Amino acid sequence: MKPGLTIALPKGRLFRESVALLEKIHCSAEGLGEGRRLVFEDAEQQTRFLILRPVDIPTYVEYGAADVGIVGKDVIDEGDRDVYEPLDLKFGRCRLVVAQPGGVPQERSLTDWSYIRVASKFPRITERYYNSKGVPVEIIRLSGSIELAPLVGLCERIVDLVETGQTLAENGLVEVGEIMRVTARLIVNRASQKTKYEQVSDLIGRLKQVI
């Protein structure tokens, strides 16, 4: 038998939909996602599944510890890893936006700022965005409760993911810009794309049929 694939799946909001999509193409393992196990195997199909933090998936795929992975476009762009991205999986839709307290005039142009402090989980994407606008920026990296930062004077704006915008509204923040639209993507190790071409191509082809 030809060697199978190692597939990295993201913990958190994308996990259930990732598993459901793979089950549609009969690619799964018994008990996948149950308990605290991080590795699951389907011996018959020679497929291994790794359950990882989303931020780590591009690293595992780039270095070949996983042949393919499912992860959000935001994580891919922030990590800037050398992976092949062949397929938009069309779920996990959200947006990466810029927001600020509602009391600040929304019509204020970025060019009015001589310097701006922004809090985000996405420092690389945020820096690229403000550099493209020609605005000097200090980025404060936070891992949670981003909405609180401008309310206590830590920063002027935030860059964060939103699905409905409800969390922003509940914290008195308003959206003032959109950086990117995000969906889950399939990523592939560049070496595996060649050495396991048949298996990778078959996986991509079956996924395309059910998306």
Structure description:
It is elongated, with a radius of gyration of 20 Å. The chain folds into two domains: 6-92 and 183-210, Periplasmic binding protein-like II (D-Maltodextrin-Binding Protein, domain 2, 3-Layer(aba) Sandwich); 94-181, 3-Layer(aba) Sandwich (D-Maltodextrin-Binding Protein, domain 2). By secondary structure, it is an alpha/beta fold. The two termini are 28 Å apart. The protein is 28% helix and 30% strand. The longest helix has 14 residues, at 197-210. The model has no long low-confidence stretch (mean pLDDT 91). It has seven helices and eleven strands.
Topology:
Layout: E1 6-10, H1 15-24, E2 39-42, E3 47-52, H2 57-62, E4 68-72, H3 73-79, E5 84-88, E6 94-101, E7 116-120, H4 123-133, E8 137-141, E9 157-162, H5 166-170, E10 173-182, E11 184-188, H6 190-195, H7 197-210
Parallel strand pairs: 1-3, 1-4, 7-8, 7-9
Antiparallel strand pairs: 2-3, 4-11, 5-11, 6-9, 6-10
Fill in the keyword field for this structure.
elongated; 211 residues; 11 strands; D-Maltodextrin-Binding Protein, domain 2; 28% helix; alpha/beta; five-stranded mixed beta sheet
Quick description:
Helices cover 28% and strands 30% of the residues. The chain is of the alpha/beta class and 211 residues long.
- Percent helix, as a range, is 25-40%
State the order of secondary-structure elements, H for helix, E for strand.
Answer: EHEEHEHEEEHEEHEEHH
What is the fold named in CATH at topology level of the largest domain?
D-Maltodextrin-Binding Protein, domain 2
Number of strands: 11
